[in-house]
Amino acid sequence: MRTMTETMTRPAARRSGGGLAGALAAEWTKLWGLRSTWVCLAATLLLGLATSVLGAESIQISGGADEVDAHTLASLAIMLPQFILIALASLAVTGEYATGAIRTTLTAVPRRGTALAAKAVVIGAVSLATGVLTGLLSLAATAWYFGDSLEVTAEGLLYGLLGPGLYLALLSLFVLGLGAVVRSTAGALTGAIGLLVGLPLIAQIVGNETLLRIVDHTPNPQGQLLTSGGDVPHSPQFAALLMAAWAVAGLAAGYAVLRGRDA
């Protein structure tokens, strides 16, 4: 009788799958149930393709077709689309704070670390896939324009396909964590854009060497390295580690705030 009573009074969230598997399923359903998700992802892919086509036109006009590799346009392909994906990543958490849905989420998944982890897995996976598809569209545009003159290597495919996916996934995770910290879409986007564009621009204008070195370790340069295979100011492998560190730092900060502050 006591066991039956405990079962009946146990929180509904726990009975309905409040663990990681249930949280993942819920986040996946919520993400794809929003029209904004489809719009953002379609815009990301189309913008990536458009910038790749413009880049290919520019290379063709300048006569640099002989030096084109599979990843030549990958850096350009993510330059603008990254801002659409970080908006999507931010909305995954800030949108719930804006509507009050975060209370429902945390009632269904009382462990806040689990709730944030589920969001991170879903956003990371979608951003990774979108980045790879963006790289694939960029490669298709490159092949269409340059045909037989295109040099395709395993290394070029690695940077051209996996590079955009890895960078966009880790960047999205950082912004997801940032969104959990500030709980505001405008605040998260302002902070992210300031880091991606504002700080590098200020560093270039000021010309301070210390500030320039700091900028070398911010996300945007890592994206260029991961998609181009360059080695200045450091290797793509180190760039991947830096991006992972940004993602971990953002999520850790988000978890700390999520755990220590009421919804």
Q: Compute the number of strand runs.
A: 0
Domain unit count: 1
Mean pLDDT: 90
Given the structure, what is the number of helices? 13
Using the alpha-carbon principal axes, give the shape.
globular
Main sheet specs? none
Helix content: over 70%
> In percent, how much strand structure appears in the residues?
under 5%
Radius of gyration: 21 Å
Q: What is the end-to-end distance?
A: 36 Å
> Structural class, from secondary structure content?
mainly alpha
Unreliable residue runs: 1-17
Could you give the order of the helices and strands?
HHHHHHHHHHHHH
GO molecular function: ABC-type transporter activity
Keywords: Membrane, Transmembrane, Transmembrane helix
Organism: Actinorugispora endophytica
Protein name: ABC-2 family transporter
